[in-house]
Design brief:
It is built from 14 helices and 13 strands. A hairpin with a 3-residue loop joins strand 12 and strand 13. Helix 3 runs parallel beside helix 7.
């Protein structure tokens, strides 16, 4: 293994968010620190024929403050979210674009379902209304890489740009890959994160069939949990080497120190404690840490019966002699599928930066099968240095990111 002290340190200099608990980074963080969920009736889709009604939806979203009608014609809702979050992240990072930097910046995004609303509309027209034609921009709106492509055009970035699709680990895989690209000297900067907009009738019916969506709210790790709550939105981060950020006087929100991946190789939907633990250990090892140095775990924490017990067991395997604080912010912003890892990575970075660990909201009853130092209902005001963020996807694809607080001069 190479000496980690020789690697360039990679920091976060810009953060952008649009979500069900806030349409900017600051609004998102305020909801997290107050333990304020953004879960309520889904209004953007007809829900009368579904068994569940609630989700974490971007409130009263319209493209008009962000895009012209002509621009929006080319972009599904999920791609619009990607660009909105990227704009905020880049603005906060105060990047001074040059042709050389544009050539050496990567864009790596995660998306699970892509332009689902556009796809649903197309299928409805063809199969339900028997229309002989569909809108000519259907394919550009559906493609999962649309977010990355529109971000590249937004900033005229001509370096590597691509999208990772690994179900609920998509954004974490994207951020980790971008981190490694900078650390290995392949690029000078990256815009990385994920976006998702799954609130369309067809995919909601598919989730209904799986019977893992809660009828009311999301209660991770609580004994009375009854399933996940779907969410939507996007989160993007600007990543760059520490020396570069310091040289240009950029604000630094935190440092990304490690990335770990694993595959359960056992079941398409049932999680594995062994696989989850393997990815956590890989991230900690990649960061050059030991488990007892990790202070906080932003858990995958979906509030399904199987996930929460399995993840708790995995956390206890990794941290056998140490109990980090644990919370699931999905209890507030919902499970945003391919964007989930990005929202949770941002939550973790802001927690380290702000000295406040966000809570698991909606927690009611301790589960005797879950033995964790759980932050329940109220944020924990404590400055910690190191944290990991877990993402465990259907298909047994796991991704874990390791972050460290960076002291400002």
């Amino acid at each position: 293994m190479s000496d980690s002290s020789l690697r360039p340190r990679v920091v976060i200099t810009g953060i952008g968010v649009i979500s069900g608990i806030g349409s900017t980074r600051d609004e998102f963080w305020e909801s997290l620190r107050l333990g304020r969920p953004g879960i309520g009736p889904i209004t953007s889709t007809e829900m009368s024929e579904l068994r569940f009604r609630n989700g974490s939806e971007v409130s009263n979203y319209s493209h008009t403050p962000y895009f012209t009608d002509k621009q929006a014609d080319f972009m599904d809702r999920f791609a619009q979210f990607a660009v909105i979050a990227a704009r905020e992240a880049v603005a906060q990072s105060c990047v001074q674009w040059t042709d050389e930097l544009k050539d050496n910046t990567a864009i790596v995004t995660g998306a699970c379902v892509g332009g689902q609303s556009s796809e649903d509309a197309c299928f409805h027209d063809v199969y339900r209304l028997n229309k002989p034609r569909v809108p000519p921009l259907t394919i550009p709106r559906i493609m999962a890489n649309a977010g990355a492509s529109h971000i590249s055009m937004e900033f005229s970035v001509t370096g590597p740009a691509y999208t990772v699709s690994t179900a609920c680990s998509s954004a974490s895989h994207a951020i980790g890959q971008a981190y490694w690209m900078i650390r290995n000297g392949q690029v000078s900067m990256a815009i990385a994160g994920g976006s998702e907009a799954p609130f369309s009738y067809g995919i909601l019916k598919a989730w209904e069939a799986m019977r893992v969506v809660s009828s009311d709210t999301c209660r991770p790790f609580s004994k009375d949990r009854n399933g996940m709550i779907l969410g939507e939105g996007a989160a993007m981060m600007v990543l760059e080497p520490l020396e570069t950020a310091q040289a240009r006087g950029a604000a630094i929100y935190g440092e990304i120190c490690g990335f770990g991946m694993s595959s359960d190789a056992c079941h398409i939907t049932q999680p594995s404690a062994i696989g989850a633990a393997r990815s956590m250990r890989a991230a900690i090892r990649d960061a050059g840490w030991t488990p007892d140095q990790v202070d906080y775990v932003n858990a995958h924490g979906t509030a399904t019966l199987a996930n929460d017990v399995t993840e708790a067991a995995a956390i206890n395997q990794v941290f056998a002699s140490h109990r980090p604080a644990v919370s699931s912010t999905k209890s507030m912003h919902g499970h945003a599928l391919g964007a989930g890892g990005a929202l949770e990575a941002v939550a973790t970075v802001l927690a380290l930066h702000g000295g406040i660990l966000p809570p698991t909201a909606n927690f009611n009853l301790r589960d005797p099968d879950i033995d964790l130092d759980l932050i329940a209902n109220e944020a924990r005001h404590i400055q910690v240095e190191r944290a990991i963020s877990n993402s465990f996807a259907f298909g047994g694809l796991n991704a874990v990111l390791a972050f460290r607080a960076t002291k400002q001069k």
